[in-house]
From TrEMBL:
Keywords: Lipoprotein. It comes from the Archaea. Residues 12-86, 95-192, 216-322 form the Pyrrolo-quinoline quinone repeat domain. The keyword Lipoprotein applies. InterPro entries: Kinase-like_dom_sf (IPR011009), PQQ_b-propeller_rpt (IPR018391), PQQ_rpt_dom (IPR002372), Quinoprotein_ADH-like_sf (IPR011047), WD40/YVTN_repeat-like_dom_sf (IPR015943). Transmembrane segments: none annotated. It holds the Pfam family PQQ_2. This is Cell surface protein/ lipoprotein. It comes from Haladaptatus paucihalophilus DX253.
Length: 642
């Protein structure tokens, strides 16, 4: 008997909410500040903080399921029709339906468009649902499309693979996935699993990753031509319709049947594989150093990401299929039947929760809380639990073979320090010593190695692939942070410091590219008026491009403008949060740009430049320049006429 389960602490219950009707299976969706839950003919939005119901919308058809949330819109499907509803006050009244269209749950979204696999591939306006274009393949398209770099990739019902322009729906190329058998048949079934980014030393363009359930293969096709780059036969080539493919940390993880394969994205070469006693179930997850999978035999396994060495396994108390995911810290969460188990990175039980009714869909995680919807219609928001002293004592006692578990309970709290010293300095097996060599040399944060601390909020960090980034932590409210992080990340403008990753747990953080150069404040003493105008003029052009995408800087300063060997980069489009009084508008940024020029000048500006700066700083926003680009033009005019 595993006595630790009897004493395992319960999680902190943040809140619960009981629905009036039974929920639909798979009907919980989490995004930002809202938990979306559907019953048969209703969709409701609940606050992640309190559980209070913000709104509820009834539908005239049954089987409603939320399938996607993006930019103030939640998309729900009844299997045949997709409904677009307001999810924030900024887009209209909570829960109001803006439009509906044929398309079901085969949906991909961007900021401006929604792409639906509805027999044809339809592109519709995300705001009003208006059909922009329609693409018809050789056979009906009832697959989920994938959007990447102004191209939509989608397969049809009999094995055709298409690349379609997002601009007008024109076909860029088509390919038969199985190039060795170009005659497609109704038995051939493929799906686009994702897009692999470019690899400088191998391929100049990305690759489309495709799964073929008929042949049990994973393939990568050139994103620009459709040409086959590599194919890997998973599961010994046996048919495996339930395969799971995940791309993370520079690896491709393929779970097919009882086997987990780890592949190189560039070449498709197998790095390692393991065969488990039972079939793999659910998704594959990683904390950056370990890989976690659940099985139909009721176990969760952890393997070293580097070489596949098994680190531990954890068995649930109930028989049947166990699935797993990770929380905000990369720690596994396993669920089976009515039981939910939260583990630490070493596979030890941190807390457990037994429900009256089994979860009806996978749990969701945000802000260090786990959100679970059970079959009896209850939403549970569960937080981290602190171990009771007796539970901690049992855990320590379990680690020593020579202490009987029950005998160690009494008085073991006082012995904990001595016991831990003995355990940590005792004999290690050869396998344990090999595994310890794989452990990171630096502390980690959401999969990033933390190296030098640059200030109270910022670390020099590295990704699992060895790329150097800056990682910053913030104190902004999660809802505000998520809004601003999405705005910054979507820019993709030359001259804007790029966001490489972000999250809101365990506290808001963002990873950005490290820009090599000198800030304008560092070189201000060397700048004359002409040089200062050149630097700020280029910064204004960059800010103008951001404005066209609806993004404002809000904190322009000499420290946030970097001069590099190749030009100017505007950095730290940071999160100003709420309550700081900073205005989000074009006139406000124009005024900040004018102030930036003045901060770089040691002498009084020339008369033409002074006139330009005075207009940029006008107290009436309507009297300032109508755009940052117009301000940049006037700066250069002043420099020529001084």
């Amino acid at each position: 008997m595993d006595i630790t389960r009897s004493f395992a602490p319960e999680p902190n219950v943040r809140w619960t909410f009981e629905l009036e009707e039974e929920p639909k299976s798979g009907s919980l969706l989490l995004d930002g500040a809202t938990v979306y839950v559907a019953t048969n003919d209703r969709l409701a939005g609940h606050s992640v903080v309190t559980g209070d119901r913000r709104w509820e919308t009834a539908f005239d058809t049954g089987g409603i399921t939320p399938v996607a949330v993006r930019d103030g819109t939640v998309y729900a499907s009844d299997g045949d029709v997709v409904h677009a509803l307001n999810s924030t006050e900024s887009t209209g009244t909570f829960g109001n339906e803006r439009w509906r269209a044929r398309g079901g749950d085969r949906i991909a979204t961007t900021e401006e468009m929604v792409y639906l696999g509805a027999g044809t591939l339809d592109a519709r306006s995300s705001w009003n649902g208006k059909l922009r274009w329609r693409f018809a393949g050789d056979e009906p398209i009832h697959r989920k499309p994938v959007v990447h770099d102004e191209t939509v990739y989608v397969s049809d019902n009999s094995g055709g693979l298409y690349a379609v322009s997002t601009e007008d729906g024109s076909e860029r190329w088509n390919a038969f996935h199985n190039s060795e058998n170009p005659n497609r048949s109704s038995s051939q079934s493929i799906a686009v699993a994702g897009v692999i980014p470019e690899y400088d030393t191998t391929h100049s363009t990305g690759s489309v990753l495709v799964w073929d359930s008929t042949y049990g293969s994973v393939s990568a096709c050139a994103a620009d031509t459709g040409r086959l780059r590599w194919r890997f036969m998973a599961n010994d080539g046996r048919k495996a319709s339930n395969a799971t493919i995940t791309m993370a940390g520079g690896r491709i993880y393929v779970a097919a049947g009882r086997r987990l394969h780890v592949l190189s994205p560039a070449t498709g070469d197998e790095r390692w594989h393991v065969t488990l006693p039972d079939e793999i179930s659910g998704s594959i997850h990683s904390d950056g150093f370990s890989v976690f999978v659940g099985t139909t035999g009721g176990e969760v396994y952890s393997f070293a990401r580097k070489n596949g060495t098994q680190r531990w396994s954890f068995g649930t108390e109930e028989d049947g299929t166990t699935r797993s995911r990770t929380d905000d810290y990369g720690r596994p969460i396993a669920w089976q039947g009515k039981e939910l188990d939260a583990l630490d990175a070493s596979g030890e039980l941190r807390w457990k929760r037994r429900f009256e009714s089994p979860p009806c869909c996978p749990p969701s995680v945000a802000n260090d809380f786990v959100y679970v919807l059970t079959g009896d219609g209850t939403i549970h928001a569960l937080g981290t639990a602190e171990s009771a002293p007796i539970f901690g004592a049992i855990q320590v006692a379990k680690s020593l073979d020579w202490i009987p578990v029950f005998g160690a309970v009494v008085g073991s709290t006082a012995l904990a320090g001595a016991v831990w010293k003995l355990h940590s300095s005792g004999d290690e097996t050869e396998g344990e010593m090999r595994e310890s060599a794989d452990e990171p040399e630096y502390p980690t944060w959401n999969g990033y190695e933390l190296h030098e601390r640059l200030d109270a909020e910022t670390h020099l960090a590295r990704t699992m692939d060895g790329d150097t980034v800056l990682l910053r932590r913030f104190t902004d409210p999660p809802e505000t942070f998520e809004r601003d992080a999405k705005e910054w990340k979507k820019l993709g403008v030359d001259g804007v410091q790029q966001v490489l990753g972000w999250g809101i747990g365990p506290e808001p953080w963002v990873a950005v590219e490290r820009v090599n150069g000198r800030t304008a404040s560092e070189i201000a003493a060397t700048l004359d008026e002409g040089n200062a105008v050149d630097v700020v003029g280029r910064a204004a052009e960059i800010v103008h491009l951001a404005h066209k995408r609806g993004v404002f800087h809000e904190s322009l300063s000499p420290e946030n403008v970097v001069v590099t060997d190749s030009g100017v980069v505007v950095t730290d489009w940071r999160f100003t949060g709420t309550g700081d009084g900073r205005e989000r508008s074009v006139p406000a940024d124009v005024r900040r740009l004018g102030g930036l020029v003045r901060s770089l000048l040691s002498d009084e500006p020339s008369e033409p430049l002074r006139d330009v700066l005075e207009r940029a700083a006008a107290s009436d926003p309507d009297e300032r320049y109508e755009s940052a680009l117009a301000f940049a033009d006037m700066l250069r005019w002043a420099a020529r006429n001084r």
